[in-house]
Amino acid sequence: HLPAWGPCTYGAGGGCASVSPNERGSRGWLHVLTVRATDGDAGANADLLYRLLNAGGPNEVFEIDPRSGVIRTRGPVDREAVEAYELLVEAADQGQEPGPRSATATVRIAVEDDNDNAPQFSEKRYVARVPEDVAPNSAVLRVTATDRDKGSNALVHYSIVSGNSRGHFYIDAQTGALDVVSPLDYEDTAQRPPGLCHRPRLGAQWPGLLHLPRRR
Ligand SMILES: [Ca+2]
Ligand SMILES: [Ca+2]
Ligand SMILES: [Ca+2]
């Protein structure tokens, strides 16, 4: 008999098994899944050993136990570097006559996203210059930050975290557009530049700077 892949998943066409180790949980030795094949013969003719046929390159992060069929990670995975893997697994019996027989299956592994990246602003520092008599609701500048994660882990919301105690400035949480919303006063040195922040969880702060030329 040829070894036959067990129910599910490993699939008639050799397809299957989408498992999802997430980034943070996979510092190493994470059990991803167990593949299992059966063999209708007896003795060595049914003694199955598993191996990865494409263990090189990015797939090096996975290994398979030849006896148990347990596939696990050997080190961290990073979704931002490699989002999905396709392993080619072979199950081979140890028959001698006429020789070992084998079957292969494909295991697809998708890596779930962890929120392991903070948003990054497009600039280290934004500088704007507005006249003291700027009309309320004038646009000052627009900041943008991007996040390498995925889905809600990559959503960026902007807010002003300091320097806006008088409420002169407003930032649109979605677009990052910063407006002056009430009259400014050059002599009021308490008007420090607003520090902007983006959320969620992995926030980072940005030291903004706002020049305020004196009204003539
Ligand atoms: Ca990552
Ligand atoms: Ca991530
Ligand atoms: Ca993030």
Automatic annotation (TrEMBL):
Localization: Membrane
GO cellular component: plasma membrane
Coiled-coil positions: none
Molecular functions per Gene Ontology: calcium ion binding
Keywords of the record: Calcium, Disulfide bond, EGF-like domain, Membrane, Repeat, Signal, Transmembrane, Transmembrane helix
Entries under Pfam families matching the protein: Cadherin
InterPro entries assigned: Cadherin-like_dom (IPR002126), Cadherin-like_sf (IPR015919), Cadherin_CS (IPR020894)
PANTHER family assigned: CADHERIN EGF LAG SEVEN-PASS G-TYPE RECEPTOR 2, FAT ATYPICAL CADHERIN-RELATED
Protein name per Swiss-Prot or TrEMBL: Cadherin domain-containing protein
Organism listed in the record: Dromaius novaehollandiae (Emu)
Phylogenetic classification of the source organism: Eukaryota, Metazoa, Chordata, Craniata, Vertebrata
